[in-house]
Amino acid sequence: MAEFMAPESRLRIQERIDAVRDRKTAQTVDHITRFDKTPSQLKAEMDRYVIGQERGKKVLATAIAYHYRRLGAALQDAAAQSGGDVEKALRQVKTPKANILIVGPTGCGKTYTCEVASRLVGVPFVVEDLTKFSETGYVGQSTSDILVDLLVSAGGHTLTAQTGMVYLDEIDKIASEKTLTKDVSGKGVQKGLLKMLEGMENTIEFGKDRLTLSTRHVLFIAGGAFDGLEEIVQKRMERLGIRGLWREHLLPDDLVRYGMERQLMARLPVRVVYNALTTANLRDILTKSEDSPLQAFIKDFEAWGIRLVFTEEAVLEVARRAEQEGVGARGLTSILHRVLLEPMFSLPGTHTGEYEVNAMHVKAALA
Asked: In the chain, what are the domains?
């Protein structure tokens, strides 16, 4: 139908599209320039959702608050100097960027902490599983797909996308593996990430359009379990006579020995090690976090007129089981579903009022 549209209609539609784009640009700039949370304020808000990982939250809150405060101030100055041309201002802004590396076991809250932080800042956020990427894109995905996902998260708005966060999950899985004949695994993917993390202009295919997207102001956070890294650090510490916790002495050389490219690690200057969650942490996630999976189940039962109640012992048993299974916070939902499967199936329509779950019930359901 588009080919039969009158020129006046085409112009009118384009003007509306431009108006929406300009309004979105103004909203993005206003949001970033108004960001004024201090690191301690940002961490305090993160505490409502993320349980444990006190040092990790402190490191992330500081890096993120400074990044967006610095960007907002520079953007405001550049916009004034460029006569209100925001896109030109964004290209002119030059600020140091402290990308972050999080090391920690599965289920300790690496991804979730970053998701919560992006929500509190109010910027686009995407999670990219690096195990799906390849150097060429013929197998799996190519690194340029990261920018497409970021653009989708930003509603197709390039300026908004350029202020977002990208979480690179499972970065340890693209470590190089030396063989007698060649360097295999993720070396090519690591090299593909280099310029993206440093900040560069990228041309990407978005539908029928070719768009330019800069990563100069995108905050990248990479995370991985890095199984075996502790041993590498401890051996170096023993050789040099260094005492203390290995996580406090992690160096780029240790990550290079693990199989990471030195240049890539240099582009992730802020590093923090997360601890495995304890039974007490997991219990507090169930009872204190505003994103508690237990509260989600309680609300589900309320929809059927059922008041679900877990005793303290039952909550503790669920937490113990999550720690025993090594699934961390991510596994709490699965364990709760196994515990509550029978009442979820049989109670709606047959029971209203209180339904109590005790430790015996949990043990029996998980036997």
From this structure: 7-273 (3.40.50.300), 279-365 (1.10.8.60)
